[in-house]
Amino acid sequence: MAYLELNNICKTYGQGDNESQVLSNINLTIEEGEFVAIVGFTGSGKTTLVNLINGLLEPTSGEVLFKGNPVSGTSHERGVIFQNYSLLPWLTVEQNVLMAVKEAFPKREKAVWKRKAAYYIEMVNLTPATNKLPKELSGGMRQRVAVARALAMKPDMIIMDEPLGALDALTRGNLQDQILNIWGKDKRTALLITNDVDEGIYMADRIIPLRPGPNATLGPEFKIDLERPRDKTELNDNASFKKTRNAIIEYLMDIGDERKSEAKEQFILPDLAPKDFVNQFR
Amino acid sequence: MKASLTLNKVSNFLGLGLFTTLKDLFTNKLEKEDFKNFLRKTIVPLASILLFLGLWHSGAKALYNTEADFKIEKALQDQGQAAADALQVCIASGESSCQPNTLPSPSQVWDSFQSLLRDHNIISADKVAFAKKTAALNKTRIAEGKDAIVYTGRPSFVDQIFRSLKTVFAGFLLALFIAVPLGIFIGLSPTLKSAFNWFIQIFKPVSPVVWYLLVFMIVKTVLIGSADDSSFTISFISVGLCSMWATLVNTAMGVSTVDKDYINVAKVLKLGAFQKIFKVVLPSSLPLIFTGLKITLSVAWMVLIAIELLAQSPGLGLFVWEEFQNGANDSNAKIIVAMFVIGIIGFLLDRLMLMIQNWVSFDKTDAI
Question: Phi/psi of residue B147, each to 5°?
Fold first, then answer.
């Protein structure tokens, strides 16, 4: 049985004339322990898809099944790492993580909570920043706090919505390794949403392109058969990597071109010239 | 080093950059390039204060002369030359009984201020003496189960200030306890918002005087048969009701516009309703709530004077009214003293709120 299953998901926003279909006919199955990446252009409905899976949104039609049960509302079983960190700015690193720990392990002693929070902070190498506020941290550090907070709920599946999108290339590579490390330890099921094909190939077992919205739907999947642990520098020379990478990029580019040619509506620009500023005041 | 740092902090905190530069001047820390800054921050405010006093002085003098001329002219017409001459001599001699009644000059106001302080000292000494005198008697009275004898003399100016502050804080706390919870509920629930919206829109602009009358109608009946003086109750409730609207509206707005990301976090973490409000919604709307509370406190202080005056509740408002009715030759100067005291206390209250806001709020840049 599939761990996570999406059957014919459609999602529309608005009503009547303002109705716009963002996602249509999304079918996806993820097996236990798998690392799946969904790659797509910005604005193609990736965040909507994530919110459907984690339970913040409900599909207009179709169903989301998690371990065979329909998803209704959020759950501790699915941890989420948001695109923009979403740390509470008035709480320190420890307090942010503690919030998740307290919810995941209710009715424990304070010392137990503290120890658990310290454990997850240590996991993302932020122990020296335990008592700092988010605004005192760099972008990469903030995202690591978000990772620690998501993991602290002990989720069965971890959903990442462009977690590294706002980071610079160096920090990004670093964090990719850290996330892979953590994932490798207990092989939790993971879903990564990203706009970076290389990141998807480096991290995931499977890559599924999301055809851009409106009416976004999933494209054919690409299997990544690279041995773990993967080495970034070696990857660049790996024939299989190059092939998959080119295939995915080509596919995405083709969709882009297709969409451009689909856009039949021509906007006729008015034939205007700037006013003669000098003569205007005479 | 440490002491100077804290002084810097305190004066910056109070928004009195003036003192910082002034201190720098005396400690020779002032560089040449800071001179312009020093001019702007120290000399300019001092010069504008002097200019203000100068204009006030000459304005008061002009008004004084107009009034004096009019008085002499009137005496000449009504009572003849001899009376007019006598009056002129009297005015020139500075005799208090025949002084023209007009805007007092800065020096007269300063004198009145000092006389009010002297008066306060006399009354305080009087109180102490009274307490001493009645100490033994009160002990026996209390032992016999009777009420103690209390000082019932006239309150001094300083007593009036503290009484006013007490009224304002009582009113402010009332506003806080009504407006903040109500604002949170209204902000959280669109249903409550539409239920309360007409109420807020209609009652927000109502004048303090009308609030006073409304509260008077109700409290008078509620406290019927009670021997206690209800003027304090009436005035602090009126002050609270008048001033709570800014907090109510700001709280509702702050709560209803919490960043969606934070709400999503609360949902993903599955926080309960109570946790969600206290851990996510309230902290993130604190800056707006405090903006509301700051406005509430300044409005409370502003309407207090009018309400004390109407309610005949002891305090600065009543002081001003009594001085105006009194019409003694230094009454006008005392009113101006009260004006300055009211203004300065209002300023200090505002700074106090800013201090609390900086202390509890997470984003210090938000506090203005």
Answer: -70, 145
Q: Which tens digit of pLDDT belongs to each residue from A237-277?
A: 888 888 888 888 888 888 777 776 766 666 777 777 666 65
pLDDT of residue B27: 60
Residue B147 has pLDDT above 60, yes or no: yes
Distance, in Å, from the CA atom of B25 to the CA atom of A217, rounded to the nearest integer, reads 71
Q: In the listed set A154, A176, A193, which residue is the last one of a domain according to the structure? A: A154
* A165 shares a domain with A34: yes
Chain A nearest-CA distance from B359, in A, is 12
pLDDT in tens, B233-274: 888 999 999 999 999 999 999 998 888 888 888 888 888 888
Among A132, A154, A176, residue at a domain's last position: A154
Tell whether A63 and A145 lie within a shared domain.
Answer: no
The C-alpha atoms of residue B301 and residue B85 are separated, in whole angstroms, by 48
The per-residue DSSP string of A52-114 comes to HHHTSS--SEEEEEETTEE--S--TTEEEE-TT----TTS-HHHHHHHHHHHHS-S--HHHHH
**Taking CB atoms and an 8 Å limit, are A88 and B262 in contact across chains?**
yes
ipTM over 0.90: no
Instruction: Tell me how far apart the alpha carbons of residues B93 and B112 are, in angstroms, rounded to a whole number.
Output: 19
Per-residue pLDDT at B135 exceeds 70: yes
Which tokens belong to A149?
């907070």
Tokens describing residue A158: 């971890």
CA distance B267 to chain A (A): 6
| Model pLDDT, residue B296 | 93
Cα–Cα distance measured from residue B225 to residue B313, given in angstroms and rounded to the nearest whole number: 19
Cβ contacts of B283 on chain A, cutoff 8 Å? 88, 90-91
pTM beyond cutoff 0.90: no
Q: In degrees rounded to 5, what are phi and psi of residue B149? A: -80, 125
- Kindly tell me if the per-residue pLDDT of A4 is higher than 50: yes
CB-neighbour burial class of residue B342 (10 A; exposed 0-12, middle 13-18, buried 19+):
buried
Same domain? For A142 and A225 the reply is no
Same domain, A118 and A145: yes
In this structure, the answer to whether residues A179 and A147 fall within a common structural domain is: no
Same domain for A98 and A66?
no
- Please check whether residue A124 is in contact with residue A143, taking contact to mean a CB–CB distance below 8 angstroms: no
Q: Which domain holds residue A148?
A: 87-154
Contacts of B278-282 with C-beta under 8 Å, sequence gap 24+, read B279/A88, B279/A99, B280/A88, B281/B184, B281/B187, B281/B188, B281/B255, B282/B184, B282/B255
CATH code for the domain of A31: 3.40.50.300
Residue written as token pair 């539409």:
B194
Cα–Cα distance, A270 to A282 (Å, whole number): 27
Question: Does A66 reside within a domain?
Answer: yes
CB-nearest partner of B261 from A54, A75, A82: A82
Distances in Å between the Cα of B170 and the Cα atoms of B134, B155, B182, B345 are 31, 20, 18, 16
